[in-house]
Amino acid sequence: MVGEEMIRMRQTGDLLEVESPRPVAEFKITRYLRFDDDLGSILKELSKDSRLREVMAEVGGIRIVRQDPWECLVSYIVSRNCSIPMIRRTLDNLCRKFGKKIVWEESIDYGFPAPEMISQAEPSELVKCSLRYGRRQALELRKMAEFVSEGTMDFAALKRMPYEEAKSALMSFDNGVGNKVADCVLLFSLEKLEAFPVDVWVARAVAQLYQKHLDSESVDRIKREHRLTPKDYKCVSDFGRRRFGRYAGYAQEYLYHWIRLQRGACHLE
DNA sequence: CCCCAGGCACATT
DNA sequence: AATGTGCATGGG
Question: Which domain holds residue A47?
Fold first, then answer.
């Protein structure tokens, strides 16, 4: 689903074939897949780092998608402390219960629920979608939905701000938006390709490859697989942005997939 | 029964 | 400002 468009896509060589039940404007697809990024020059710039260059060679092709900000925000609020299959299931439940149903031949799917649907939802109905933190999280989602639909949270304005400013603005809404969620929303939906979200996996990758450049106590905690302290987060994320610059977000995605390949975690997806 | 999964908010110090 | 702790689903 891209917005409320159901799409089937297949890549054969350099050709991308797209099918849909009704005509879909091409820009919706190319915008979602970030065809406006000059991937060649991005990869060339990131390749200046020899360790990252090897990582990129092992991982292969990656694209970052340009998500709808509201969808992205909800997705990462819901994701906290969950496995990827669990995240998918929760989001799917939310769409099935609150989204617009789309039928195409034998395929049935649902659009992502509008903020108005979530702000008016009964907390108990949200909890039924198997939210990891139950009622508390249901209230977080409702609050955010309210901020978005009344315009208190203005995604267009956030896009115009520089990274640091947009990040503190996002985090000031609380209700489930911390460092990680804010950086993910900035990277995947608000045009901040320099954002460098840090989860346990990215922290492990950076601690392993760039140990010398980090605070040694942070490296110790990360290698012992402790939960990340705010200090560790800042240490790794600031390093990522300094090291990889305006396309740090792409570097982050390569590091994330690389370390999961190393640890055999990709089968969990 | 145990463990842990793409963290965050809040209480203590 | 730093550190500790509760949260409370589901799959292995």
Answer: 38-64+193-269
